[in-house]
Amino acid sequence: MYGTIARIKATPATLEAIRKFEQRTPPGFVRLFLYRMDADPNEMMLVVLFESKEAYLANASSPQQNQVYLALRKTLRADPEWHDGEVIYDYHNAASPV
Hints:
Layout: E1 2-9, H1 14-19, E2 29-36, E3 43-50, H2 53-60, H3 63-73, E4 81-86
Antiparallel strand pairs: 1-3, 1-4, 2-3
């Protein structure tokens, strides 16, 4: 798997902009997580996973994703900090719904 983690400075409209991502299922998309930080409820971490780096890059360079990003960016207080990379370990509770 491959994906990105982004630190974002949110506004009240940010969550709705991220939910618009749910209207699309790009090829290779696996999962999206959004964390709200306890220390600052306006700071969030966005985690997006794809099956492969190729699928991630294809989505990242698509005009559709650019539209999603531009809508999201309008709701942020600053540019996101993006951190792309390969998932090298995945451990989870198989009985967990998440």
